[in-house]
Amino acid sequence: MWTIAGTLTPVPAIDRLDLVADPVAAALRSMTDADRLAVTAIDASLADTAEFCAHYGVPLSASANCVVVAGKRGDAVRYAACVVLATTRADVNGVVRKRLDARKASFAPMDEAVSLSGMEYGGITPVGLPADWPVLLSPEVAAAPELIIGGGVRGSKLLVPGDVLAKLPGAEVVEGLAR
């Protein structure tokens, strides 16, 4: 079923909630499309995209990265998750900053991203993020038939169709998000 899995052995995500972070497991339990996601264990030292893809034979073009952005205006801080293909970068200072109505936007500090998401740095995924965060998806991500994303921990990856990501709470497809 998963043509992008390379040497990985994906199993239904709902059957192996022990492989994902607690917020991801909670989200999967409540998703109507949970049966369309798979999970696989990986070597946590190979979680970073380039090393992961090279080691497991996964196409870089089928891998999506999720980054947490903090937008500030005065004392107010707004967070968003941005999901773009690994072959692109999120336009944080343009599209994301404007979407968050922020004067300044940047990647959230690692400790903030980890504590607020309940996930491990390098494994943060759009599945299971705080309900008040927008999940901004590039059109390429939303249209992808299959993608590999983080599992909320460095030791796993989720396999998911892009249309499932587009149905996540707070998900928005944003033109121009990826460059």
Automatic annotation (TrEMBL):
InterPro entries: YbaK/aa-tRNA-synt-asso_dom_sf, YbaK/aa-tRNA-synth-assoc-dom. SUPFAM superfamilies: YbaK/ProRS associated domain (SSF55826). Transmembrane segments: none annotated. Residues 46-167 form the YbaK/aminoacyl-tRNA synthetase-associated domain. Coiled coil: none annotated. PANTHER family: CYTOPLASMIC PROTEIN (PTHR30411:SF1). This is Prolyl-tRNA editing enzyme YbaK/EbsC (Cys-tRNA(Pro) deacylase). The lineage of its organism: Bacteria, Bacillati, Actinomycetota, Actinomycetes, Pseudonocardiales.
